[in-house]
Amino acid sequence: QSALTQPASVSGSPGQSITISCTGTSSDVGNYDYVSWYQQHPGKAPKLIIYDVNNRPSGVSDRFSGSKSGNTASLIISGLQAGDEADYYCSSYSSTSTPWVFGGGTKLTVL
Amino acid sequence: QVQLQESGPGRVRPSETLSLTCTVSDGSLSNNYWTWIRQPPGKGLEFIGYIYSTGSTNSNPSLKSRVTISLDTSKNQFSLNLRSVTAADTAVYYCARMSDSTWYWDYWGQGTLVTVSS
User: Fold this and answer.
1) Alpha-carbon gap, residue B104 to B69, rounded angstroms
2) Using the beta-carbon criterion (under 8 Å), do A93 and B103 form an inter-chain contact?
3) pLDDT digits 0-9 by tens, A31-78
4) I need a labelling partner for A60 at 20 to 30 A (CA). Which of A83, B16, B53, B115 fits?
5) B1 and chain A: CB distance < 8 Å anywhere?
């Protein structure tokens, strides 16, 4: 059971936009702007795509954006491309017994 | 460009100790949280623990009694020991870096699969 809750799967057609949610509690997502998102292609290491809720590292497409409202953070991918098909994980700092928690991951399928 | 590379046995017998090393290239160990994260086959990511460049550590309470993370600055490496392993510890193990001025992992190793099996 992951500390943060993500939908198991989402899908969209090329060119469309999708949103992946990441729901935590007031001990993590709700109280800290230290939410990050990672993209993971099969057999590869996770890659940072969003940090501190809504910031993109250098080199990451501006089609990726993030937001947060209350205890839920969201990853938005616009203009879907075939190469976006991957697993996506959110992570947050937590004030509980473990300092970092992950979501269970969301599999994005580009139809 | 910082590079991380995990190394260690690909198979460990039940009840024994899993030992992995992460070698850091083109970067200093200073001012960073050096982290171990694992991913069981077909499942999500799990934070194992970290060691700060001063040597202080923190680990997941669910693993704390079995985990030791250490640092070897002379070799630019940090290591993970996980004792008394079971099949549930079978996973891809990643090492990753978090700068102490940030709150995310920006560099990751490629990961190494460790299978617990007799």
Assistant:
1) 19
2) yes
3) 999 999 999 999 999 999 999 999 999 999 999 999 999 999 999 999
4) B53
5) no
